[in-house]
Request: fold
Amino acid sequence: MEHARAEDTPLLIASRRPRSPSRTASSFRATVPPLLRERRMSLRALARAVDVDVAHLSRTLRAGAPPPSAALTERVAVALNLPPCYFPESRYATVCARLADDPELRDWVYDALVGDGRV
Reply:
């Protein structure tokens, strides 16, 4: 796969494009409770919809808990009629997986982020 060089392509990361309503920049933990209130849906009903134990889902939403898995965030998004990539944790996992699988892309992103190599 050929990628544009960092010096040839402006960094999208640096641009402040308006966020699409099809995704959020807020964490799963911060976003799920208001989404449930908006939909008048209980945590128990959501847990049933995504086939996880309500205690597990509750622990995932607590401050200080480890981040949820990408699979869980995607299932919750779909259960709430949102795109699977709605939560940033899902997008982060996708990016990390792509970077892990593609050394050339990983180096391109690194070069784009650090420029001349001085961190």
